[in-house]
Amino acid sequence: VLDWLLLGRELPSARSWTCLLALAAFATMYTMTDSHFEVRGYTFVAIWFAIFTLDQVYLKHVINTVRMRSNWGRVFYTNFLAALPLVFSGLLSETDVVTKAETWSIEAVLALLLSVALGIAMSYFAWLARSLVSATYFTVIGNSCKLLTVVINVSIWEKHASNIGILCLLGCLTASYFYKQAPLRNKADGYAPSD
Fold this sequence. Notes:
- 15% of the residues are buried.
- The protein has helices spanning 2-7, 14-33, 39-65, 71-93, 95-99, 106-132, 135-144, 147-156, 163-178.
- It is built from nine helices and no strands.
């Protein structure tokens, strides 16, 4: 609905509404199968999801209205702005760890560089995907990509989703697969895009 209200897209089709409702239903069923279900914990998740959704709409608005020569500009600004407080908080709170020579082993530096490279790659492809699809569709794609973390969790730890929970996640993936983003509205319909 925010894509329609703020970003000039049509309302989702009946198929897409069905997929969105199925996603919500399967996600709810997944939380109900969690052996450590606590309303307090999932209240935080609901608040996060609401903020995340608004963030996606805002970022799509930025992509549509702020012109950059390339996708790398968005990647640079995003990571630079995020790194500034991180560097200062790290230096202020962990000075002894950062200044010790044994902290900076070859393995630690390689792990840090790999983490930076993966973070930049994720940022690049996230901004690229945001520029190609609607805010809602990007949210659906992003949340369906969480399946990999569930697979890793199931293969490594004992406390993970139940079989019913995993079926619910597969239901979410199926609904994500069949979701189709709403097309942009025509200018004849009274909407003037900000592009």
